[in-house]
Amino acid sequence: MTTPRSAPWTAQEITTLRAWYPAEGHGVAQRLPGRSIHALQVKAHKLGLNTAHRNSAPRPHLEGESLEEAIRLREVENWSFNAIGKHFGICEASACNAVTIALCVRRGYRPAERDKHGRLTAEGIERLRYALKKGYKGIDIQLRLGVSAACVSEQRRRYNRELLARGKALLPPPGGGQAYSGVKVSAAKRKQVEELFLQGLGTQKIAERTGVSRTSCTRIRTRLFRRLRRKGETLPGCDAAGVRRVHAETARFVTDEQKDLLRAMLLDRVPVQRAARELVIGASSAYRLRDAFAAELAGEGQVLPPPRRPGRVRHAPVRSSSWPPASPQEIYAFRRLLCTMTFADAKTHWQDMRREAVKAEREAAATQKLTFEEQLAKVASGELRIVSGFVRNHLEPRLPMHSSLRSRSETLIDA
Prior knowledge:
Layout: H1 11-24, H2 37-47, H3 65-75, H4 81-88, H5 92-106, H6 122-133, H7 138-145, H8 149-165, H9 187-198, H10 203-210, H11 214-230, H12 256-267, H13 272-278, H14 283-299, H15 328-337, H16 343-367, H17 372-381, H18 401-414
């Protein structure tokens, strides 16, 4: 479906625009009812027309009770600006502007100076430019100065153009280059994120690989999903509703070597949990693999032997500091080693790293000086105790200076 084009400008409309736009500005729209304000601005820019008329600044889309409710949803219920916008029937940017401008004064900040029309004065623009030079995030500038997101972006563009014309360095990126949900993502980075989504990867893995925040990746995924749905397609590994059903192969998956070692230990009648702990496999995954092995053996007419129970043992096994990896982060780090090493080599390498890390921690703890509060805590726990100190005198006898020199000279003469 093609977008309908507007009617071409007539000579009478252009004459009216030239006559009244310099004095009335947007007010000339009443004389040209068939043209929108945006169309008037574009045509005036093409004709080189400027206006001395200053319009009032746009008012926030939320006021009164609606604004109070939006602030409550943001501060108390911890709603996102997107959810607040949907609740009040406005866009996310309008909800963000209304709430942050209202919170500026409530949190004790001084809003940017404005004139009688609500526009920023020279002093207000200077304060905003100073915040841009400091590299603050856009949302922080909005909150501290009480301005909209579009105002921050426009002043950034204008200031960068002025700096570029004067041969100066450009402004630092928002947030000092930090990846956060409100930062602008370049087209190349957005395309890279979309390609990884089409490869079947998830949001967390894509955020780690590209450096884009998880919130931005989620929004890119939503737009990509809608675009594919209009074509009758879906994301790899997802159903028609966009819910992921199949995960792509990553370093977090159990390797084939681990599966073979688990099968050998199960045939050797080792309990499932002990084998899983030794082979760095999750308990749930180990039981699923055990059931798959049992079904495979049953298809061949064999039976998986029962595990050999150790009898009465301690409830909690004694765990070594070097093996096996305990936390999910350590487990995934070890599985990344399996991408380039065998299980035996990776285990030896992991144990060496853990021993060195424990040794370094022990040496650091031995040389670390305790604060007064830490000393009191150790005394209270019984690790340290308070004893009376004593002054230790020097072992050398305190002889007069002249006697020491005389005895030394006599010794030299006798020699």
